[in-house]
Amino acid sequence: MEKGCNLCDESKLDLGEKTPYGAKVIYKKDGWFATLSPKTGGNPEKDFTVQLMPMGHLNHISEISKSLNLAKSYGIAFSKISKAVTKIMELENRSSENDEGIIRVGTYGKSKHPEEHFHIKIFPWTGNIGQPYTVDSTFEHSRRYTDKDGEAFIKMKPVEKMMIKPERMQYLSDKLISFLK
Ligand SMILES: [Zn+2]
């Protein structure tokens, strides 16, 4: 537990409780907790993001393997949350949004800031949030443009984070909590 760390403070909240910025705790088990973010960069009527973090003050993902139990419970939490996100997307027929007809779940995580916990984001991979990222081979194959200085660039659709309505937050958090039981 580190003094002045927001995520250490959030890890003390119970399931269904809100953080000061409006995220809701939807998972808490075996050293890990997850929150539903109050905002989304996608469609606020459909999209959402879950953030998975260690309850302990671990900054770097490389620290997890120090404890076999923590590593194991990370894998379980990651899989269960991905499954819960998938189930909500199935209920809302999100597979109809791509030609392959599949439910696409995205994950993004990095160990970057020494003052915050390692965290990973799990979310419906669709629309403006579902654009190829630098590590995807599709990104490499994106069409290149050249600006007036002769520098190459790739076009991406802009993302604006918007608040999810309270009723939708309630619906999503109730569903996620029940799927993750
Ligand atoms: Zn902390």
Helix and strand topology:
Elements: H1 6-10, E1 24-29, E2 32-36, E3 39-40, E4 50-54, H2 68-91, E5 105-110, E6 119-124, H3 137-140, E7 144-146, E8 152-154, E9 162-163, H4 166-179
Antiparallel strand pairs: 1-2, 2-4, 3-9, 4-6, 5-6, 7-8
Helix pairs in contact: 2-4
Name its key features.
alpha+beta; binds zinc ion; single chain; 5-stranded antiparallel beta sheet; two-stranded antiparallel ribbon; 26% helix; 181 residues; HIT family, subunit A
What is the element string, with H for helices and E for strands?
HEEEEHEEHEEEH
- CATH fold title: HIT family, subunit A
> How many structural units, i.e. domains?
1
CA distance, first residue to last residue: 26 Å
Bound molecules: zinc ion
In CATH terms, the superfamily is HIT-like
Our Rg estimate from Cα atoms comes to: 18 Å
Detail the poorly predicted runs.
Answer: none
- Percent strand equals 15-25%
Shape: globular
| Helical amount | 25-40%
**How many strands appear in the DSSP assignment?**
9
CATH architecture: 2-Layer Sandwich
Helix/strand-derived category reads: alpha+beta
Largest sheet: 5 strands, antiparallel
Average pLDDT confidence is 95
Major beta sheet, strand line-up: 1-2-4-6-5
Count helical runs: 4
